[in-house]
User: Which sequence fits this backbone?
């Protein structure tokens, strides 16, 4: 009886590395390869991946190319921004948040075509291998996972290129040299790592930046915009209602034009090493500031402070690949509950790398101008009440001080 041929769903960009992986799966595993190419707004045409996959022997019915931009922003980016999520205080998780969606669609396609395995192109040193595989196993616990960078015998870039030439895989002209850095991009951000960026003491060359002009080259006049929110999610810019992906794309352009969203970061990878990356998140940087602005008048202080305490844990879960874990879903439920009244309009000023809130308004505002005014108010707050409030809060401090006095020699 003929043994069933292994069928593998490969996350396929159409680039050199995943093309080598495709051919390697065919030669080493004798596998039937199904390619999945996701358009997440990376800014490059994804259709050429179809022609490359066909050229490498993939049957047309085994080639999946999907536009996931709306789902990406609506179901992954926006829920993350409801929490004001930043990893290690700075990183807006542009790469991290894309991986669970890719993993989810790979598993769905694997079920659809009856595949036995899934495959990714992440290296054995990075976080993405963890993110992809935790996603796979959370959704399909018995799936076979193939991680070529942990399995094959290639020891150098030169050996990979030789393999490509042997199997007539097209090599871009500059691939024979040393790429200055590696890039990952989607609608939320671009990240650049490696090569010229590996020395954290050296300033990143200007040519590294993909999504923003230099703040020094940005206009000398500020750009003012409004962003409308509904239950924590942005829904309109300057009064124009936009879909999630279209809204983020417009914010990206505004951020690009004003030099907003650059980050040079040394971060702690989940696998244990530090890495230096240059990230650009123009629209996300504006969105984070605006969301905090609308929360400042609509979210109760206790809820806001609790959210701030929860956020680092939530950020680490996303960074480490636990999007589908129950603890992330529990935190998400609490975060989403907090956003029930986070609706209104924020006015933003964009100027030379800065995104600044200059106004905020909401029908659900908790801000009471009559209550906080230094002028004569309505009388709902009696200044004399503060004395008792202070004495109660000072009670334990006074008790400690009295003990210290008693113990003095």
Assistant:
């Amino acid at each position: 009886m003929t043994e069933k041929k292994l069928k593998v769903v490969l996350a396929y960009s159409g680039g050199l590395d995943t093309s080598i992986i495709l051919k390697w799966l065919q030669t080493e595993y004798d596998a039937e390869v199904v390619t999945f190419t996701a358009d997440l707004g990376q800014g490059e045409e994804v259709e050429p991946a179809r022609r490359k996959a066909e050229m490498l022997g993939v049957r047309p019915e085994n080639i999946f190319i999907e536009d996931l931009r709306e789902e990406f922003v609506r179901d992954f980016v926006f829920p993350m921004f409801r929490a004001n999520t930043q990893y290690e205080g700075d990183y807006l998780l542009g790469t991290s948040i894309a991986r669970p969606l890719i993993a989810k669609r790979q598993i769905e396609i694997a079920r659809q075509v009856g595949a036995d395995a899934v495959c990714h192109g992440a290296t054995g040193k990075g976080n993405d291998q963890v993110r992809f595989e935790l996603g796979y196993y959370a959704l399909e616990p018995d799936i076979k996972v193939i991680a070529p960078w942990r399995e094959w015998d290639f020891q150098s870039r030169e050996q990979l290129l030789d393999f490509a030439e042997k199997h007539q895989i097209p090599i871009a002209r500059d691939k024979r040299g040393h790429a200055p850095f590696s890039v990952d991009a989607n609608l939320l951000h671009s990240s650049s790592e490696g090569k010229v960026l590996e020395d954290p003491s050296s300033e990143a060359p200007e040519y590294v930046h993909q999504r923003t002009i230099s703040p020094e080259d940005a206009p000398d006049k500020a750009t003012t915009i409004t962003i409308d929110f509904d239950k924590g999610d942005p829904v309109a810019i300057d009064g124009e209602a936009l879909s999630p992906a279209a809204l983020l794309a417009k914010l990206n352009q505004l951020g690009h034009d004003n030099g907003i969203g650059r980050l040079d970061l040394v971060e702690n990878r989940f696998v244990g090493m530090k890495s230096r990356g240059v990230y650009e998140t123009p629209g996300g940087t504006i969105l984070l500031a605006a969301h905090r602005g609308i929360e400042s008048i609509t979210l109760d202080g206790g809820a806001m402070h609790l959210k701030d305490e929860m956020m680092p844990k939530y950020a680490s879960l996303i960074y480490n690949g636990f999007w589908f874990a129950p603890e992330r879903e529990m935190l998400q439920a609490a975060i989403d509950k907090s956003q029930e009244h986070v609706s209104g309009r924020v006015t933003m000023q964009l100027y030379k790398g800065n995104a600044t809130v200059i106004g905020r308004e909401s029908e659900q505002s908790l801000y009471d101008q009559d209550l906080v005014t230094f002028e004569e108010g309505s009388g709902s707050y009696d200044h004399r009440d503060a004395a008792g409030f202070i004495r109660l809060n000072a009670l334990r401090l006074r008790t400690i001080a009295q003990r210290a006095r008693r113990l003095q020699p």
